[in-house]
Amino acid sequence: MAAHQHTAPEKRRTGIDAWLDERIHSGKAIDFSLNHPVPLHIHPMDYLGETTLFIFVSQAITGMLLAMFYHPVAQTPYFICTTAQQVAAQYCPAVGAVSPSEAWMSIQNIMGTTFGSLVRSMHFWGNYFMVVLVVMHMLRGFFAGAYKYPRELTWISGVALLGMTLGFAFTGYLLPWDMKAYWATQVGVNIADTIPIVGTPLADLVRGGPVLTGATLGRFFAIHMLLLPAITGGLIGLHLLLVNIQGVSAADGLVVETDQGETLQQIPNVPEAAADSNSRFVSGGRPVGNTGFSTAVQPGGDVDTRADRL
Ligand code: HEM
Q1: pLDDT of 161-220, one tens digit each?
Q2: pTM, full prediction
Q3: What's the CATH superfamily of 44-252?
Q4: Residue whose CA lies nearest to ligand 1 atom number 41
């Protein structure tokens, strides 16, 4: 058995865990997700994936709330606001003003309440946090050599997740339907348009026609709200399944039975020099020898499991 497939001792189930296990045999699945070895002295950088996941969940919740108040409509029924009723119906900011789009006004209305502005700001800044965290998580994976055998599939699913994250950012940017959103999207779609052969059909597809109109807003809204969350949800499930099967890389080959009890193995496939610098990275800068990731856990120490950390 590979070292990372260390099996936790049979656990006595209590409460809801026992209740569910008796009915739907959920115990094994719960153990699989929560009970696998991770290094005792894990570095904060190793949690960037979890941090990204936290922001993703926050984006999903705040996004659902925003969708209840946002109108994906580029036009308004009036061009110049002429009556107080139009203002009262929230189509216009004031009598005599040029009427803005319904999409823009709906966001103004969201921002007009304390809770609305909190939720919208969380969603707005969450987007930037998510992009930065995904890139940091990716860099950590790169510099720790976590993309190498046997985690190539985790890396590939991660690259797809990076694409999804950028897709969320790009499609979400248009939704306020103001000048900045409109022209920034125009530039983005025009760049895609320049790709030989596939560029123009692709640009027409996302635009919903040859020019950027209300059809584009509807299309971006559907992509942002339905298509990307569905694909991203599936990809995150796959990504986490792969991480669970293999354990985080610092934990790879973690536990090996030796004469001195449980001790650790070096990560396979990482050259000695890289392993040395990686192990400093993973062990939080504590001086280590050239024993690679093994120093992330004290030799002879106990095995920490995810369940222990919860
Ligand atoms: C929505 C975006 C993403 C989410 C929610 C996510 C989530 C996670 C989580 C929770 C883990 C396990 C613990 C950890 O290492 O932090 C993980 C591991 C990993 N992720 Fe991601 N990830 C995302 C994007 C990416 C990207 C863009 C890449 C690289 C292109 C990537 C590559 C990896 C790799 C290689 C591992 C294994 C790390 C190891 O074993 O040390 N992930 N991810």
Answers
A1: 999 999 999 999 999 998 899 999 999 999 999 999 999 999 999 999 999 999 999 999
A2: 0.78
A3: Cytochrome Bc1 Complex; Chain C (1.20.810.10)
A4: 249
